[in-house]
Design brief:
By secondary structure, this protein is α+β, with helices and mostly antiparallel strands. It has 2 helices and 7 strands. It has a 5-stranded antiparallel sheet, with helices on one face. Strands 2-3 form a two-stranded antiparallel sheet.
Amino acid sequence: MKALQNLFKLAQNVKVFVPSTTAVNKDGNELQGVYVRKFMELLSAEFGGSTSYKALGAWLSTAEGLVTENVTIVEAFATDAAFEAGLTKVIRLAAKMKKGMSQEAIAIQVNGELFLL
């Protein structure tokens, strides 16, 4: 694509799915807001910017069956070097969120592949 060859490319992409519940089915909207802000700050600091948007998620809980919830996805694009340097920090914050929100798993999407923490 000749038209894009002189443009600045951010080839790496990460998305973090921030839940709105704690302990499977309890209201976690306040904590969701806290973690969305933390991820937006981290991704912006590490990768130069971030975007968040709402989505409806569903998953099967071993304890409760099908759980649906409003999630917020926080996303960033990055250069290869910035991504390599910052991804560990994203995973560390996701681990803190998992514990702080009593989640069975946290979804992190990297370049179109989904990883569960």
